[in-house]
Amino acid sequence: QVQLVESGGGLVQAGGSLRLSCVASGSVFSINAMGWYRQAPGKQRERVAAITSGGGTNYADSVKGRFTISRDNAKNTVYLQMNSLKPEDTAVYYCNAIGTPWPWGQGTQVTVSS
Length: 114
Hints:
Blueprint: E1 4-7, E2 10-13, E3 18-24, E4 34-39, E5 46-51, E6 57-59, E7 67-72, E8 77-82, E9 91-97, E10 108-113
Parallel strand pairs: 2-10
Antiparallel strand pairs: 1-3, 3-8, 4-5, 4-9, 5-6, 7-8, 9-10
């Protein structure tokens, strides 16, 4: 069973940057499209970025131009570079496969202060 471990979150001022990482155990990582999701208090989980096995990407309108998703298949790792952070980006961030999700990891908290 694939396990997902997210890291890299923290407290940052508005306008700052963070880089999130997500490591997936198992050998199926490279064939899956992967996504970064976030869930703010009282809100539903939403996908903010996605990357295909071939490196194609797409983003939610709310983060387009500020967030960049990338992956390193050799390391079973997907990254989310977050720049120009806003208070509304505050949430717990998760990664997962797209289409047939694996068990969710614990996520990593991102808090952006104004």
